[in-house]
Amino acid sequence: MSEYTTGELAKLAQVSVRTIQYYDKKNLLKPSQIFENGKRIYTDNDLNKLKLIILLKNLGLSLKSISEILESQNSMKVMNLLLEQQLNGLRAQLKTSKEQIKTIEGLRRDLPQIDQIEIKDIGDIENIMKNKKSLRKVHIKMIIIGILMDFVEIGTLVWAIMKGNWVPFIIGMILVLLIAAWISRFYYQNTNYICPNCNTEFKPKFWAAFWGIHNSRARKLVCPACGQKNYCVEVYDEKRELAR
Q: Which residues form the signal peptide (predicted)?
């Protein structure tokens, strides 16, 4: 069996000499042999015991608790119960961390992509999230209506081809055009835009918004406040909701 001095044991366990001396003082880890000159000798058993102490310490146990476990007659049973509790605790922390990560990712995804927006407190974040949810409802309503329009258009076209009667198709197309006009107006009334240059929220002219180049989050518009033409970020028109 190998023998180690205090320094050698500390190096093997990757702890300081002072730590081992402290454990010795607390009667937690006594050397296997002590010479008259005070030199302490530790064995492989002592090294394994030290590694166990370090493990339990890292799990959050106090030195008093570790001492009671090591001195217990049912130390293995106590260890198994302890490790099971620690494992359950870590799993709970992991679940919480995953939920927090999901929340943060959702927040980052939903925040407007404008650096000038100032967030002073949690209320500002809540308002931004509420605005995004309202805007998402507008988009969902438009998608649903768009699907119904496609159904009417395709359905009446198939009917016309199969039956040779084009009247339903013509009526359907008129209906689709009317719905398209309504949905365009609905979208315009419920959306505003924020200028990335001066941070002004504004509602553009209908045709400027209608013909403006756009992507899923922004539309290229001229800001009425600073006069610059930029991709302005789309937001929900909260003033319209308050006016109802």
A: none
Can you tell me the distance from the alpha carbon of 179 to that of 152, in angstroms, rounded to the nearest whole number?
A: 11
Statement to judge: residues 137 and 60 lie in one domain: no
Indicate the helix (H) or strand (E) that contains 40.
strand 40-43
**CATH code, 8:** 1.10.1660.10
Q: Give the pLDDT confidence of 45-92 residue by residue, as tens digits.
A: 888 888 988 888 887 788 888 888 888 777 777 777 777 877 887 888
pTM over 0.70: no
In which domain, by residue range, is 40 found? 3-71
Residue among 210, 215, 217, 211 at smallest CA distance from 193 = 217
CB of 107 closer than 8 Å to CB of 129: yes
**Structurally, how many domains does the chain consist of?**
2
